[in-house]
C-alpha cells in the first residue's frame, strides 16, 4: 500500500503571529547611522531622540498686525470714545529695535515682531484708525491678548522628536523650528529582490507559450522603497539551482534578500531546494490566505533571507505581513506592523477556515462610513495581479471566520 508523507520541505503549520515572531527575532536594527541635512530627512528614520536647542517661540511676540499698547491706557476705549496714543516705534518682524512703550504710547507692530518693553497687549489694526504718528483705539484688549509667549511651544532642552519616528514634512519642520540643522538617521537597509521562475519575461517583452511578464520584482522593489529600504539589486533568475547558488555566492553586500517564487513543493521550486540545502532557512506553512508557503532564515554570512510564494497577491500580502515588519525593525522603527481600521463590507465573500485571510480591498467613503469591497472582481485568487491596482489595503479576516456578509465590520490595514 502506498504511503504518503507531507511533501518534503513543506514545513510545519504555524500561525501568522508565530511566523512574524520568528521573523522579528531574526532581524536587528542596523548599526549604521548617518547625519543628514534637514532637507534630506523626509522618509528617513530618526536614529536617536533630539531635543530643542532654543525656546520656541524664542521671545514674546505679536500674533497680529496692529499696535502694542499698555492695557491700562485703553481700558475705557469704545468706538464712540476712542483713546488716542502716540506711536513711538514701527516694529516689523525681524526688527532688532528695542523701544519702550510708556504711558500714553503705542508701537506699530507686525505679526512676529518682539513685544516692546512696557506693552502688555496688542490691538489688531482693524480695531484702530491705522494712524502712523498717533493712533486711535476703539476697544480695550484683554490682558495678554494677541501675544504669543516665549517657550509656549517648547523650551530649550525639551524633546522634539523621539528615536524611531519616521521623518516627514511636519517633523522636519519641527526640527528646523527647534534650531536643528541636521538629524541622525538610520542607514537605509539594502535589499536584494530576486524574482525566480523560468516562465518570467521582462515587462513588455515578447511572450512565448507559457511565459508571463515578471511583475513581482517590480512589486517588491517598489514595496521596499515605500517601506524605507534601498533596493540594492533587482533581478530575475530562471529555475536553475546553479544560477541561484552562483547569485547567492556572488551577490552585492546587502542587509536583506527577498526571493519570490519557487518556495512551494513543485519539482522546479528551486528556491526551496537551494535554501533548504543551506540548513539555515526554515520552511513553514503559515495559516494564512494567500501566502501559505513561507521561507525565512539566513544566507551564508548571516544575511536574513525571505522566500515568498510566487503568486503576485501572495507576494504583496507576504510583504505586508512579514517583510515590511522586518524592514521596520532593521530601520529601528517602533511600529513594525501597521494598524487596522474598521470598515463595512460592501458585499460578502468567503474565507478559508483556520487561515487568516488577507483580502485586497478597495475602500470608499459613503455617508461618513468607510466601505470595503474586494479589489478584484475575481475575489481572493492569489494570481489576480491586476486586481492589486485597485487595492487600498487588505481586509484581515480572522482565522475562525469563514463568511463575511455584506454589512459586517472588517478590520482593514490601509497600505495606500
Ligand atoms: N501541490 C501544491 N501546490 C501548490 C501549493 C501546495 O501547497 N501544494 N501551494 C500553492 C500556493 S498557495 C502557492 S502561493 C504557490 C506558491 O508557489 P511558489 O512559491 O513555488 O511560486 P511559483 O510556483 O514559482 O509561482 C506561483 C505562480 O506565480 C507566478 N509568478 C511567479 N513569479 C512571478 C513573477 N515574478 N511575476 C508574476 N507572476 C509570477 C507563477 O507563474 C505561478 O503562476 O504554490 C501553489 N502550489
Ligand atoms: O497561499 Mo498561496 O500564497 O494562496 O496562493
TrEMBL record:
**GO MF:** molybdopterin molybdotransferase activity
Give the catalysed reaction(s), semicolon-separated.
adenylyl-molybdopterin + molybdate = Mo-molybdopterin + AMP + H(+)
Q: Which cofactor does it need?
A: Mg(2+)
InterPro entries named among the record's database cross-references:
MoaB/Mog-like_dom_sf (IPR036425), MoaB/Mog_dom (IPR001453), MoeA-like (IPR038987), MoeA_C_domain_IV (IPR005111), MoeA_C_domain_IV_sf (IPR036688), MoeA_linker/N (IPR005110), MoeA_linker/N_sf (IPR036135)
So, what pathway does this thing act in? Cofactor biosynthesis; molybdopterin biosynthesis
Q: Which UniProt keywords apply?
A: Magnesium, Metal-binding, Molybdenum, Molybdenum cofactor biosynthesis, Transferase
Q: Which branch of life, at top level?
A: Bacteria
Stated EC number for the protein is 2.10.1.1
Q: What class of enzyme is it?
A: transferase
Q: List, alphabetically, the SMART domains matched.
A: MoCF_biosynth (SM00852)
Question: The MoaB/Mog domain covers which part of the protein?
Answer: 192-329
Recorded family membership: Belongs to the MoeA family.
What is the role of this chain? Catalyzes the insertion of molybdate into adenylated molybdopterin with the concomitant release of AMP.
Q: What is this protein called?
A: Molybdopterin molybdenumtransferase
Q: Which organism is it from?
A: Agromyces flavus
The record lists the lineage as: Bacteria, Bacillati, Actinomycetota, Actinomycetes, Micrococcales
Amino acid at each position: 500500500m502506498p504511503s504518503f508523507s507531507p511533501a518534503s520541505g513543506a514545513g510545519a503549520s504555524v500561525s501568522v503571529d508565530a511566523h512574524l515572531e520568528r521573523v522579528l527575532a531574526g532581524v536587528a536594527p542596523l548599526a549604521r547611522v548617518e547625519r543628514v541635512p534637514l532637507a534630506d530627512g523626509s522618509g528617513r528614520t530618526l536614529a536617536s531622540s533630539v531635543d530643542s536647542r532654543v525656546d520656541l517661540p524664542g521671545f514674546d511676540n505679536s500674533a497680529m498686525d496692529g499696535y502694542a499698547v499698555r492695557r491700562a491706557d485703553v481700558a475705557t476705549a469704545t468706538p464712540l470714545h476712542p483713546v488716542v496714543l502716540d506711536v513711538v516705534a514701527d516694529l516689523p518682524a525681524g526688527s532688532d529695535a528695542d523701544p519702550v512703550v510708556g504711558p500714553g504710547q503705542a508701537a506699530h507692530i507686525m505679526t512676529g515682531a518682539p513685544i516692546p518693553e512696557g506693552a502688555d497687549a496688542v490691538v489688531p489694526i482693524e480695531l484702530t484708525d491705522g494712524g502712523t504718528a498717533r493712533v486711535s483705539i476703539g476697544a480695550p484688549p484683554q490682558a495678554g491678548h494677541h501675544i504669543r509667549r516665549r517657550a509656549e511651544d517648547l523650551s530649550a532642552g525639551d524633546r522634539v522628536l523621539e528615536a524611531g519616528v519616521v521623518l516627514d514634512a511636519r517633523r522636519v519642520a519641527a526640527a528646523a523650528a527647534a534650531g536643528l540643522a541636521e538629524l541622525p538617521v538610520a542607514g537605509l537597509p539594502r535589499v536584494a529582490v530576486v524574482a525566480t521562475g523560468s516562465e518570467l519575461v521582462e515587462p513588455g517583452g515578447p511572450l512565448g507559450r507559457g511565459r508571463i511578464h515578471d511583475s513581482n520584482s517590480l512589486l517588491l522593489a517598489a514595496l521596499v522603497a515605500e517601506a524605507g529600504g534601498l533596493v540594492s539589486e533587482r533581478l530575475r533568475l530562471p529555475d536553475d539551482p546553479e544560477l541561484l547558488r552562483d547569485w547567492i555566492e556572488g551577490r552585492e553586500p546587502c542587509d536583506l534578500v527577498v526571493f519570490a517564487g519557487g518556495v512551494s513543493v513543485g519539482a522546479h521550486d528551486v528556491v526551496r531546494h537551494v535554501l533548504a540545502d543551506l540548513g539555515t532557512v526554515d520552511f513553514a506553512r503559515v495559516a494564512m490566505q494567500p501566502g501559505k508557503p513561507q521561507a525565512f532564515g539566513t544566507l551564508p554570512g548571516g544575511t536574513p533571507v525571505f522566500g515568498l510564494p510566487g503568486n503576485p497577491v501572495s507576494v504583496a500580502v507576504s510583504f505586508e505581513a512579514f517583510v515590511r515588519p522586518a524592514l521596520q525593525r532593521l530601520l529601528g522603527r517602533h511600529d513594525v506592523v501597521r494598524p487596522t481600521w474598521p470598515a463595512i463590507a460592501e458585499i460578502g465573500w468567503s474565507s478559508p477556515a483556520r487561515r487568516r485571510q488577507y483580502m485586497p480591498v478597495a475602500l470608499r467613503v459613503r455617508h461618513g462610513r468607510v466601505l470595503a469591497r474586494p479589489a478584484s472582481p475575481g475575489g481572493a485568487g492569489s494570481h489576480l495581479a491586476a486586481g492589486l491596482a485597485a487595492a487600498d489595503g487588505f481586509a484581515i479576516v480572522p482565522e475562525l471566520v469563514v463568511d463575511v456578509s455584506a454589512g459586517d465590520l472588517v478590520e482593514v490595514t490601509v497600505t495606500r
